[in-house]
Predict the structure of IS66 family insertion sequence element accessory protein TnpB.
Amino acid sequence: MSVSDFCSQHNLSTKSFYNRRSKLRTKKPPESSFIAAKPAASEFVSLPELLQLKHGQSTVLLPSNTDVLWLAALLRALS
């Protein structure tokens, strides 16, 4: 789209368009308040091989890599 077409569609004069574009090009970008975060050192935590769920006299043993959505569905079904 040409400048004149844009200005016609937005009811602007070409002089105003070029004046504003010039001001925007010379304007300094705002200083960023971004601060790079450094991740804290983490220790390796080993997981137990089995999850043990107990309720009353019942015990369920599950692999520690059991899908959390499946486990949530199981707990909902048992409650």
Q: What stands out?
A: The radius of gyration is 31 Å.
